[in-house]
Amino acid sequence: MDWYQVIWLSILQGLTEFLPVSSSGHLALTPSMLGWSDQGLAFDTAVHVGTLIAVLGYFHADFRLLVREWIRSISTRQSTFHSNMAWCILFATVLIGLVGFLIEGVVSTLARNPISIAIATIGFGLLLGVADLWGRRTREFREIRTLDMLLIGLIQILALIPGTSRSGVTLTAGMAMGLTRQAAARFSFLMAAPVILIAGGWEGYQLITDPNPVDWSKLLVAIGLSASVAFLCIRYFLRYLERFSLMPFVWYRLALGVIILYLFM
Fold first, then answer.
1. Containing structural domain, residue 52
2. CA 67 to CA 62: how far, in whole Å?
3. C-alpha count within 13 angstroms, C-beta hemisphere, residue 16
4. Does pLDDT of 89 surpass 90?
5. What pTM does this model have?
6. What's the 3-state SS for 19-62?
7. DSSP letter at 195?
8. How far is CA 101 from the centre of its chain?
9. Which end of the chain has fewer CB atoms surrounding its CB within 10 Å, N or C?
10. Rounded-to-integer distance, Cα 185 and Cα 113, Å
């Protein structure tokens, strides 16, 4: 990879990992649309490490509380709001990891198919718009019920479909259940960390047997750049949701899907 590709794709990953527009879809499509070679396992691992650093750094207080309450629930056998959330996030992570492992071949095939990415981009974009326009959106973060957490965790499995967007599908589910945009986004981001860890860990495991040489200077830049961009993206996206709707992202997804269909059909 050339340096300009490293910089562009790192920024793209940092922006799209937490916005409801599908990072995997963008990373899969960009090389094919621009005629670039595949970025490879090492780069994918690096940008996942970067975005993991970003979400852990931004929500460090939340994660400390979740871990502390989870450990306390094991020793005292008493549940709290945060211990229940920790268990639900753990359940959702194990579930999406298991399903992802079982259907890895199918996911890889879909990731190389621009038409399937376009259909997922449009279809789940429309669902996001429906939830944003017609969801009740009255319940705040502390009003998330355990059943809500479990259902959102189950629905997160749909994010394995390239073009769907993990944050998009979990935001859609949260708003459809009556959560405010900010509450749905915050829970979505908290669920993201272990999922990104699994994805990066799996890619890192595969990287061990990859015969291609690794350019560590480019990987370090990819980690730092994707982490910085993702951190800023989380901060300003949450501020954006305090005042504005998700409809600009819906229109973006629809436009992107139509462009992909036009280019590849």
1. 3-264
2. 9
3. 24
4. yes
5. 0.91
6. CCCCHHHHHHHHHHHHCCCCCHHHHHHHHHHHHHHHHHHHCHHH
7. H
8. 17
9. C
10. 29
